[in-house]
Write a structure and sequence with these properties.
- There is one protein chain.
- By secondary structure, the chain is mostly helical.
- It has 4 domains: 35 residues; 64 residues, Dna Ligase, domain 1; 96 residues, no CATH class; 129 residues, no CATH class.
- The strands form 3 sheets. The chain has a two-stranded antiparallel sheet. It has a two-stranded antiparallel sheet with strand order 3-4.
- Helix 2 crosses helix 3, helix 5 crosses helix 6 and helix 11 runs parallel beside helix 13.
- It is globular and about 95 Å long.
- GO terms for molecular function: lytic endotransglycosylase activity.
- It catalyses: a peptidoglycan chain = a peptidoglycan chain with N-acetyl-1,6-anhydromuramyl-[peptide] at the reducing end + a peptidoglycan chain with N-acetylglucosamine at the non-reducing end.
- It is found in: Cell membrane.
Length: 374
Amino acid sequence: MTDDKKGKMKKQLIERQTEAKVVRKIVLIAAIILFVIIGVGGLGGFLYVNSALKPVNPDNDKVKNVEIPIGSSVSGIGQVLEENGIIKDARVFKYYVKLKNESGFMAGTYELAPAMTLGQVISELKTGNVDQEVVFKVTLPEGKQLEQIAAIIAEKAGMDGDEVFAELNDKAFVQKMQEKFPSVITDDVFAENIKYPLEGYLFPATYDYYKEDATLEEIVTPMIKKTSEVLAQYTDAMENKEMSVHELLTMASLIEEEATAQVDRDKIASVFYNRMDEDMPLQTDPTVLYAHGEHKERTLYKHLEIDDPYNTYKYNGLTPGPIANAGSTSIEAALNPEETDYLYFLATPEGEVLFSKTLDEHNVKKNEHITSNN
């Protein structure tokens, strides 16, 4: 190799080494700049959130009348509070509420001030310290069916019962509720053979209303919201049991309608699950009455012949949907049944529930406590 070629190669090697050094410097500088940007951005984000968690103006104690509409979501409440200058950022409020697992906010007009902390604001919204008086209350007992609930609402709100019941079953109305509570009211309520989509979805409780002319939507929204809040406590349990909201409310409603005392529910639930495991029909009388669509003092053999998907004497498994609204105790029983070998239970005229493992044992108890009029 000539000296000229050697010199040329050496020159190219030096140039490549120089380029490599330049590239490494550029990469290092870019990395430093990126790190600074991320650090500054992260710091900026931290400082912003930290600021948003503090009062808007610690020195401003002047109260404002802030109206929280019935059925408002956490996002909606945050937006109202931000627009009224009570909090700095609705999104931070939303995540703060979620992180703290806060719930139970009440509609109404509140006296709030920019000097209040998030904790104080949330406390006010939960305690219901409003400057409006309750115009009317609606109390939904456990075990009530939608038609009965419609009558209760109509009586308290001065509406027509038939019109209320018709609107509760109107698909457009149900879909509007579904848009508000998509995780609770799923497409399961529109499945084939469902008699009334919102059956079992209006939680038993007492609800306060502050407007004489409240619409049915304004009346029903907090009832479904309450169902959503209650079910949120059992998300993990539902996942572990692989139960949908619809299945849970359906099972809970059967337990609710059969139970005569709080202590019976866990055992009644165990009977239902044991029968399903054995591929046996549930054979629960309230479903027969629901299929007939009318109240009867007693379920007779002739009533069991009705060919209806809700008749658990003819069809195995759960009914297509709930047959009534269920309270927390029945919901918990549906998720945590007692472990038993019982396949039968019998409610005596005295209100006692007797459990049996075999049909023979059940029939003996039936003959002892029930006088047949069939």
